[in-house]
């Protein structure tokens, strides 16, 4: 039985990846390593937590002795690395935690694998990254896997740095690695500091929806389950040393997306059409705000036969339904209730 370590598995994307791997691969032992920061919580995984091929490990990827012990105790065959500080606005106010987790934490994991994997046959280190490493586009063009890196926020610079280090370990030490760079994810379990869940939360409570600048920045949105399927596929079929861009072919200006969401929420909440749009409030722009991201995902489509499966409107309706059905999840993550529950259970780190 192979043992796969998934880092950041209690977070937004990680929890969807863990669930998919646990359910689809009973022949694999899935270890979920997560520090349970404000962004991670185990309620995301209630439904699979007693599966025989699943275990949770509370730990920090910046803690080298902890990683040495973990790799000493388990014969780890593969790593799917998602643990990160992931929110751009937080990276502007506190860059250091991004440097520590995203860069130093990634190198610690690479070192653990390099030292443990004397024979690399059947081993793989899969690094999950972002389209933000490529910088910002004007109104035309798409990011390909060959686009030169041009990160412009502390978050994207930390992810770009970790991508370079992963490739350097492949080139220098022959570590088998694969990488993917994905566009904006949305869906259930996303922490409500990111645009879509924040807007859902505020519309529900009749609070202002903050739109940065004029709302003209463009993002390419992908439903989180589609990203998780791409990750599962790349982990099993991706070619070592190769990078795959993953996108939704689904570009939206922020203001148009928010208007669409307001319409869906008015319907779901039986409000008069136009009620939620009145909450839109233009606020000071994000510092260094990238104008547009857009992905050319033809490599993964052609080589691995992956495509997004869900239309955006359908994905948004599913997402809204999930948040409306889980008000206690939203309440707990925004009040910090999970943090105090877990620190009692697992101790502060
Ligand atoms: P998230 O913030 O929801 O989750 C991150 C998880 O990592 C949390 O569970 C957190 O507790 C854990 N973590 C943080 N620091 C840790 C540490 N030092 N040790 C162990 N665990 C730690 O993030 P997400 O949105 O699910 O993103 C997951 C990955 O995907 C990240 O690497 C991110 O850069 C990448 N990504 C995200 C998006 C997106 O739209 N959200 C798009 C492309 C790529
Ligand atoms: O592109 C992939 C990236 O997408 C991931 O690597 C990041 O981890 C993820 O957080 C996301 O980054 P963004 O900065 O694009 O996501 P965010 O939800 O923070 O913002 C989306 C857009 O909405 C962006 O143009 C900023 C704008 N925005 C955001 C917030 C939180 C607002 O207008 N108002 C807001 O309150």
What would a concise description of this structure say?
The protein is an alpha/beta fold. The protein contains 12 helices and 12 strands.
3D architecture notes:
The chain has 349 residues and is an alpha/beta fold. The protein has a domain at 2-189 and 220-249 and 289-311: Rossmann fold (3-Layer(aba) Sandwich). Helix content is 43%, strand content 17%. The protein contains twelve helices and twelve strands. The protein has helices at residues 12-24, 64-73, 88-93, 95-116, 154-173, 195-204, 224-237, 254-268, 298-304, 312-325, 327-335, 337-346; strands at residues 2-7, 28-34, 54-58, 78-81, 124-130, 177-182, 184-186, 209-212, 218-223, 243-246, 251-253, 280-283. Strands 3-2-1-4-5-6-10 form a seven-stranded parallel sheet, sandwiched between helices. Strand 1, helix 1 and strand 2 form a beta-alpha-beta unit. Helix 4 runs parallel beside helix 5 (154-173) and helix 8 (254-268) packs across helix 10 (312-325). The longest helix has 22 residues, at 95-116.
Please write out the topology.
Blueprint: E1 2-7, H1 12-24, E2 28-34, E3 54-58, H2 64-73, E4 78-81, H3 88-93, H4 95-116, E5 124-130, H5 154-173, E6 177-182, E7 184-186, H6 195-204, E8 209-212, E9 218-223, H7 224-237, E10 243-246, E11 251-253, H8 254-268, E12 280-283, H9 298-304, H10 312-325, H11 327-335, H12 337-346
Parallel strand pairs: 1-2, 1-4, 2-3, 4-5, 5-6, 6-10, 7-9, 8-12
Antiparallel strand pairs: 9-11
Helix pairs in contact: 1-7, 2-4, 4-5, 6-8, 8-10
The chain binds nicotinamide-adenine-dinucleotide and 2'deoxy-thymidine-5'-diphospho-alpha-D-glucose.
């Amino acid at each position: 039985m192979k043992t796969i370590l998934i880092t950041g598995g209690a977070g937004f994307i990680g929890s969807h990846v863990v669930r998919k791997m646990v359910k689809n691969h009973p022949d694999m032992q899935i270890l979920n390593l997560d520090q349970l920061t404000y962004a991670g919580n185990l309620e995301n995984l209630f439904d699979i937590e007693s599966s025989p091929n699943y275990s949770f490990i509370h730990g920090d990827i910046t803690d080298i002795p902890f990683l040495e012990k973990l790799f000493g105790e388990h014969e780890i065959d593969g790593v799917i690395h998602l643990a990160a500080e992931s929110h751009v606005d937080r990276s502007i106010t506190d860059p250091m935690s991004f440097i520590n987790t995203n860069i130093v934490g990634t190198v610690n994991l690479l070192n653990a694998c390099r030292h443990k994997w004397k024979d690399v046959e059947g081993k793989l280190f899969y690094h999950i990254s972002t389209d933000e490493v490529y910088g910002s586009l004007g109104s035309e063009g798409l990011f390909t896997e060959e686009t030169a890196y041009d990160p412009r926020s502390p978050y994207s610079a930390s992810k770009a740095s970790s991508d370079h280090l992963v490739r350097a370990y492949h080139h220098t030490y022959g570590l088998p690695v694969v990488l993917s760079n994905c566009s904006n994810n949305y869906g259930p379990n996303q922490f409500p500091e990111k645009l879509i869940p924040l807007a859902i939360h505020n519309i529900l409570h009749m609070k202002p929806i903050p739109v940065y600048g004029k709302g003209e920045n463009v993002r390419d949105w992908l439903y989180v389950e589609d990203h998780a399927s791409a990750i599962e596929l790349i982990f099993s079929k991706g070619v070592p040393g190769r990078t795959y861009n993953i996108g939704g072919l689904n570009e939206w200006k922020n203001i148009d997306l928010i208007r669409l969401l307001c319409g869906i929420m008015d319907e779901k909440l039986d409000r008069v059409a136009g009620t939620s749009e009145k909450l839109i409030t233009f606020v000071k722009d994000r510092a260094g705000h990238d104008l547009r991201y857009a992905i050319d995902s033809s490599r993964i489509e052609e080589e691995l036969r992956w495509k997004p499966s869900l239309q955006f409107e359908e994905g948004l309706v599913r997402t809204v339904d999930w948040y409306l059905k889980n008000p206690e999840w939203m309440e707990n993550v925004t009040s910090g209730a999970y943090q105090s529950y877990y620190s009692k259970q697992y101790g502060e780190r």
